[in-house]
Design a protein that fits this description.
Elements: H1 3-14, E1 19-25, H2 27-30, E2 39-45, H3 51-59, E3 62-69, E4 75-80, E5 86-93, H4 94-105, H5 117-124, E6 126-129, H6 134-142, H7 148-158, H8 160-163, H9 169-179, H10 182-203, H11 214-221, H12 229-238, H13 245-265
Parallel strand pairs: 2-5
Antiparallel strand pairs: 1-2, 1-6, 3-4, 4-5
Helix pairs in contact: 5-6, 7-10, 9-10, 9-13, 12-13
Length: 270
C-alpha cells in the first residue's frame, strides 16, 4: 500500500463525523509484515459509522469488497484495484478498547491464550487521524512497563491447563487421539499452543503480538524461551494424527517439561 493511498483513505474517514480516530496497525506497523501481509486499519468511535458511508469509501478504491462483515470484529475488507493489496478496516467503540486495556493493565486479568494482544495492538498502532488527541492518550496509557501481577496471572491461568489439571489439553489430546477424533485433535493442539505462547510472552514481560509467525518472533524478541521449542512445535503440528500418537504426546510433554524448567529457573512456582 502506497503512502499516498494511506493518506487518501485517512482523508476519507476523517470526513465522517462519527470517526474519533483512525489508525494503522497489524504487521505493517509491528515490523512483522511480509509479501503476504494485508493492511489493518482501525476506526474508533462513540457510535456506529454508517454502512452506506463505508461502502461509498470502499467503492472509490475497490472492485472486490465485503462490507459490514460480522465474523470477528465488525469490519470491511476490500482489495485495492490499483495495487491488489487487501485492506481490512475494523470498527471499534472507544469505551470497549479502553475497557480491554483496563482489564489487563489495571485489573490484571488473564485469558486462556492471547491475553495481551489488544495491548500490543494499541502500542504498535500508527495514528493517522486523531483530532482530539484521544488515541494518543490511549497509547500513553498503554506505554507502561509490564505489570508483574499480570505476568503472574497469565502464568497461573495458562500453565496448569497444559498438562496438570483433570481436563488439561494433554489429557484431552490423548483422548482425542485414541478416539481418532481428528477435529478434536486439531482443536486441542491449537489451544495448547495458544496458552503455551501466552506464557512465553508473559514470562518475558512482552505484550503478545498475535498468532502469526510466532516461531520467528520468539527467538528475535524474547530473552528466554524453552529449549528445543521449534523442533517440538514442528513435531506437534505436523504429526497430529492417531497414527503418530506417540510422537504427538512426546512433543507435547517435551514442550511442557522445558517450559516448566524455565519457569522454575525464573523464580515462578508452578
Amino acid at each position: 500500500m502506497s503512502k499516498n493511498l494511506i493518506q487518501q483513505i485517512t482523508e476519507d474517514f476523517s470526513k465522517l463525523p462519527e470517526v474519533a480516530a483512525f489508525v494503522l496497525a497489524g504487521s505493517s506497523t509491528s515490523g512483522n509484515d511480509d509479501a503476504m501481509s494485508d493492511y489493518d486499519c482501525y476506526v474508533y468511535s462513540d457510535k456506529e459509522v454508517p454502512v452506506a458511508a463505508r461502502q461509498q469509501t470502499a467503492e472509490k478504491y475497490a472492485d472486490v469488497m465485503e462490507i459490514n462483515n460480522q465474523y470477528w470484529e465488525t469490519g470491511d475488507e476490500w482489495q485495492d484495484a490499483e495495487s491488489g493489496m487487501i485492506v481490512d478496516i475494523m470498527y471499534r467503540r472507544k469505551d470497549w478498547i479502553t475497557g480491554e486495556l483496563n482489564r489487563v493493565l489495571v485489573d490484571h486479568q488473564a485469558s486462556l491464550g492471547y491475553s495481551t494482544c489488544l495491548w500490543f495492538n494499541v502500542q504498535k498502532s500508527q495514528i493517522l487521524y486523531d483530532p482530539s488527541g484521544w488515541y494518543q492518550t490511549l497509547q500513553s496509557t498503554a506505554d507502561k512497563p509490564y505489570p508483574p501481577q499480570l505476568q503472574a496471572a497469565i502464568i497461573q491461568k495458562n500453565f496448569p491447563v497444559l498438562r496438570k489439571t483433570i481436563a488439561s489439553y494433554a489429557i484431552q489430546l490423548k483422548k482425542a487421539l485414541k478416539r481418532r477424533d481428528y477435529v478434536s485433535i486439531n482443536h486441542r493442539v491449537a489451544a495448547f499452543l495458544a496458552s503455551y505462547f501466552d506464557i512465553i510472552f508473559a514470562l518475558n514481560a512482552l505484550p503478545h503480538p498475535g498468532e502469526k509467525r510466532l516461531l520467528e518472533i520468539v527467538p528475535k524478541t524474547c530473552r528466554v524461551y524453552p529449549t528445543d521449542m521449534l523442533e517440538n512445535v514442528k513435531i506437534l503440528t505436523t504429526n497430529i494424527s492417531p497414527e503418530e500418537d506417540l510422537k504427538v504426546m512426546a512433543a507435547l510433554n517435551n514442550l511442557t517439561d522445558a517450559l516448566a524448567t524455565l519457569l522454575i529457573n525464573e523464580g515462578f512456582t508452578i
